[in-house]
Amino acid sequence: TYNWLYINQNIQHKMHSWTPQVSA
Predict the structure, then answer these.
(1) Which string of DSSP letters, residue by residue, matches 1-24?
(2) What is the pLDDT of residues 1-24, one digit of tens each?
(3) pTM
(4) Residue 20 and residue 17: Cα distance in Å, rounded?
């Protein structure tokens, strides 16, 4: 299914949201 891709990106986006490394 393609839903996993959307969910995976959504999770990574949230992870980056609280990950200071993404700011770098």
Answers:
(1) --HHHHHHHHHHHHHHHH-GGGG-
(2) 678 888 888 877 676 666 555 554
(3) 0.33
(4) 8
